[in-house]
Amino acid sequence: MAKSFFEEMGGRYEKQGDYLIPFLELCTHWEITYKYTL
Question: Which structural domain range is residue 25 located in?
Fold first, then answer.
């Protein structure tokens, strides 16, 4: 089976019951501030 765009970009899924839900991680305020001030 071909990978979805989400998987190709490094995303992964977690199984909840019968469903595969995209596993999304949120950045902290510090990570966003540091990334865009460099």
Answer: 5-37
Q: Give the per-residue pLDDT at 30.
A: 67
Reported as a single tens digit per residue, the pLDDT across 1-38 is 688 887 888 888 888 899 988 888 776 766 666 666 55
Task: Count how many domains the chain has.
Answer: 1
Tokens 């501030």 correspond to: 33
DSSP for 4-26, written as a single string: PHHHHTT-EEEEETTEEEEE--P
Contact 20, 14 (CB under 8 A): yes
CA atoms within a 13 Å half-sphere pointing along the CA-CB vector of 27: 8
